[in-house]
């Protein structure tokens, strides 16, 4: 089967954070030693792992890896890294770019918070909604990557999809 450059999903998912996610999130916050970030920025960053964590809990085809090379092993798409949508473009770290170029990451799952992509701090017992927009072939996304200040971004949707 030929794998497509873009696999649209456009589906909203809703869930409460599991105890496993809350423990994972708490550990990440505790270990985050980036002194230049505020506590709010750190919380927002680690809360953004909720969609990938939740997907691995509800989709039997997705398994979390537990390391930083990529987020998920998907039974069909192989190695997938979840990336949050932004109007300015989807941001990729240098490590992610390296992992795509080396073939470690096959697809990028593009997602956003359902309520205008605004972060709401994740708390025990509350429901959160996010939309998985699509799976973009990672090496294809790199064709459109551009510097944006200190960040590297690619536009989403990709230009040829408009």
Describe this structure in words.
The protein has 162 residues and is an alpha+beta fold. Helix content is 27%, strand content 31%. The protein contains five helices and nine strands. The protein has helices at residues 19-31, 39-47, 50-58, 94-101, 138-142; strands spanning 6-15, 62-64, 72-74, 78-84, 90-92, 107-113, 128-137, 146-148, 151-154. The strands form two sheets. The protein has a six-stranded mixed sheet with strand order 1-7-6-4-3-2. Strands 5-9-8 form a three-stranded antiparallel sheet. The longest helix is centred in the first third of the chain and has 13 residues, at 19-31. The model has no long low-confidence stretch (mean pLDDT 92).
Major β-sheet profile: 6 strands, mixed
User: How many angstroms does the end-to-end distance come to?
Assistant: 25 Å
Tally of DSSP helical segments: 5
**H/E order of the elements?**
EHHHEEEEHEEHEE
List low-confidence stretches. Answer: none
Number of strands: 9
Percentage beta strand: 25-35%
Order of strands, main sheet, comes to: 1-7-6-4-3-2
- SS-based class: alpha+beta
Number of domains: 1
Summed over residues and divided by their number, the pLDDT gives a mean of 92
Shape: globular
* DSSP helix fraction: 25-40%
Cα-atom radius of gyration: 15 Å
């Amino acid at each position: 089967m030929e794998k497509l450059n873009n696999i649209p999903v456009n589906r909203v998912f809703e869930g409460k954070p599991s105890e496993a996610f809350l423990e994972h999130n708490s550990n990440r916050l505790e270990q985050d030693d980036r002194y230049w970030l505020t506590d709010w920025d750190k919380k927002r960053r680690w809360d953004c792992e909720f969609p990938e964590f939740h997907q691995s809990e509800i989709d039997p085809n997705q398994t979390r890896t537990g390391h930083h090379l990529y987020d998920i092993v998907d039974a069909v798409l192989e190695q997938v890294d979840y990336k949050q949508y932004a109007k300015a473009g989807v941001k990729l770290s240098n490590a992610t770019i390296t992992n795509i170029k080396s073939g470690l990451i096959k697809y990028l799952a593009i997602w956003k918070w359902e309520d205008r992509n605004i972060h709401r701090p994740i708390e025990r017992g509350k429901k959160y909604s996010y939309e998985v927009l699509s799976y973009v072939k990672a090496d294809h996304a790199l064709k459109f990557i551009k510097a944006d200040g200190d960040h590297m971004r690619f536009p989403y949707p990709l230009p040829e999809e408009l």
